[in-house]
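Revision sheet: structure tokens.
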Amino acid sequence: MGQRESIQEHGICLTVFLEKAVNTEIIGEKSPSKVFIVTIYSLSGLEGVSYLKLDAIFRPKSVAIIGASNTPGKVGYVLTNNLLKSGYAGSVYLINVRGGDILGHQSYKSILDVPGDVELAVIAIPSQYVIPTVEQCGEKGVEALIVISAGFKETSHEGAELEKKLVETVKRYGMRLQGPNCLGAINTHVPYDMSFASTLPKKGSIGFITQSGALGTAILDWIIAEEIGFGSIISLGNKADLDEIDFMEAMAEDPDIKVILLYLESIERGRKFLEVAERIVKKKPVMAVKGGTSSAGAKAAGSHTGALVGSFLAYQKAFDRAGVILTESMEDLFNYAVAFTQQSLPDDEGIAIVTNAGGPGILSTDLVEKLGLKMASLSEETVEKLEESLPEAASTGNPVDILGDALPDRYAVAVECALQDPNVHALVVLLTPQAMTDALTTAKHVVDLSKRYPDKPVISVFMGGDWVAEAAEHLKDNGVPCYNFPEKGIKTLDALYQYSRHLKLPELKPPVFDDIDRETVRRIYDAVRKDGRNVLFPHEAVAIVQAYGVNAPPSMLASSAEEAVGFAEEIGYPVVMKIVSPDIMHKTDIGGVELNLNNANMVRIAFEEIMRKSRKAQPLAKIYGITVDKMVPRGREMIIGMSRDPQFGPMVMFGLGGIYVNFLKDVSFRLAPMNER
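Predicted:
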């Protein structure tokens, strides 16, 4: 590595690489107190400015593979072979305790024997040897590690302890760690391939972060076959140090990345994820597939990486709040990603559909409505142009049905009319192959018109197989996403709309209230904790709500019939009485509630009856007493609740209350704090 020199600018030490500097420009006055230097360097063939966080992983200037091997099939062989054939121009050092040549390159028995500096070390050796090796990396001055090795917290308690020691060692030397139990990293713009991929993917602008390494390799194989362009691919593994948040931040700063994709099974730093994702989404779209959405899937995900998965509902609300687009499948994830890299965002509602078949047009229109999108109302001018240009039997509404015998010129007329319409802000072009269909020429027209109207996204659906294959490839190769069924195309367009709408939302901060009686709230919670309970009783909940300035009917806890009468007299008739016990959740079912009590005698009788029925129904229940509440006029019962998600914190529930709340489940959830939206 080249010589490092430092300068001082207002007391801040700046480090600039000087080896093979291709341009150095002094900006501002040259003086001892104020020097501004911008250096653009070319280091060992790697051109660019050091703009990324985690450069040592994304753009390493030198790499050591610890566990490199000559034996095909071994992890060390695959990693070495992939890096060497990827076109990586930095320094490569191969480490194997036996020494000798590996794939035609000199190897070293220890990283400490390497003559040059090492920025990134990739470790693929048995887990019991990892920590001593990491110690050597620290002594060598390595900046970052990718630990491929498995055998850590994903396996056992002993593995978890080993991982803890690994992190302690990494932090002691100021290094950063990707993994362990991961499948490496790829950057097609460097280029370098430090993964298990069969070949380097096509260069592109999609960043992919995956918590499942095996899924990542399967996806790699698929995207290579589909010729989808990628910029960076990161396998997270156990996330012992670096996690999805760190890599998202790095990709957000990378100008080569336009879209960030996530496959996640868990998020440990939920609140930090929200903060970072909200910031990144303002610059680049972020899309995610969440593994472990079912109870069985969550259990499997937890055993997969040793992580606490948490509530899928909380993930849904967190992603929605941050503007992260949650997809249902990996196929959707990549369909959306390609569209985001190739097409603009719609600037308003209004979708037009051009089709040569009624059935696909109807299916597409149904899905547009189902997803909450809006079909465009074509202008009179557009309708007139279509009527002049299309056969009499064609439909000039929306969808525009140009009939099964449509040739490319008819498609061109209809597509251009739609794109010229001021009410149309996105277009779907449907084609089904008929005997006279010229799919390829039609595709060329669609590509040309899409480029002429770049502010309006165009999605194509060319249904069929071999008949439309060449046309579909032409569309994909020239920036127009193409799908084989309408559902895929419309869902992709919906994703573009989701992101466009999110970017237009005004920034609203949660309201702040200064009139909260926090001391009362604190006193009630302290008493509940002292009592060993994890639930509030109704009268306590009412007191807390009142302390927050919300009107609520008065509620008092009585331990005797006479005390209940006294409370009823104080509150004023009519009153309601309810049993209070942490062991009796559904009071009405056991006769633990009496309504519309209008005098002292009714209160006394009600107290004794509620006690008798409660003890009969649940003899072992711990009963604290009976609440006396003010009877209110009939109205709509509402429920408000809160649960604390282990990843994302407090989540508020609001909706229809009453005795059927668990049956109807007419409730909504939001993460706190909430704003007015």
